[in-house]
Design a protein that fits this description.
The chain is of the alpha/beta class. Strand 1, helix 1 and strand 2 form a beta-alpha-beta unit.
């Protein structure tokens, strides 16, 4: 099953070229384009994408607001941000806004594809070096975050975790993203490993 993508940016021609490139990748399908702030929500409503890929400068700098709006209204849609420079502060702001992936514009296509796949799976997918290092003494997870990571360590899918804990899948993804950020993991499985190594599970 293909990962369905809506692309949002400022220039129709650039988006069309970008869409053609991504459509050439096995497992990816661009299902919609949005070139204005007001067009993003309708595009997500209409196409029900797995991932929304946003340009950082999208819609006059409103990309972070778009990310927050989409995640609140459509929790099953992951958001990835394409940025000019992926710095720690940019990553922090993006993750706080609800984005699960951050990719610099100078990245190669395989890195973007890896990020899109991670985001589609509900995993925070960013360069680990851009996440704030956490000292062992600072590690603290909520009970729910620990529950999610414990089940993740056992190989459960997001859907299975949601059923086990009586939570919405979107809530499980949000808990997972928070835990990944706190632990500095590359993805949910890496976060579960780190938590286990520090006796948190």
């Amino acid at each position: 099953m293909s990962i369905r993508i809506v692309l949002a940016g400022d220039h129709q021609l650039v988006l069309e070229a970008f869409a053609e490139t991504l459509n050439g990748v096995d497992g990816l399908e661009v299902v919609g384009l949005a070139t204005s702030y007001d067009a993003v929500q309708p595009a997500v409503e209409r196409h029900r994408p797995t991932v929304l890929l946003l340009g950082e400068s999208t819609m006059g700098g409103k990309a972070l607001r778009v990310a927050t709006d989409v995640r609140s209204r459509h929790p099953k849609c992951g958001v990835a941000l394409l940025v000019g420079a992926a710095t720690s502060s940019v990553v922090d702001r993006a993750v706080a806004a609800g984005a699960l992936g951050v990719v610099p514009k100078n990245a190669r296509l395989p890195q973007l594809v890896t990020t899109l796949m991670g985001v589609a799976g509900g995993c925070l997918t960013v360069d680990p070096s851009l996440l704030r290092p956490v000292a062992v003494g600072e590690l603290s997870l909520s009970t729910r975050e620990m529950d999610v990571l414990r089940l993740t360590a056992g190989g459960a899918t997001v859907k299975e975790i949601a059923g086990e804990l009586y939570l919405a899948a979107g809530t499980v993804r949000n808990l997972t993203s928070a835990a990944i950020k706190k632990l500095g993991g590359r993805n949910r499985f890496d976060a579960a490993r780190i938590a286990g190594e520090h006796g948190l599970l």
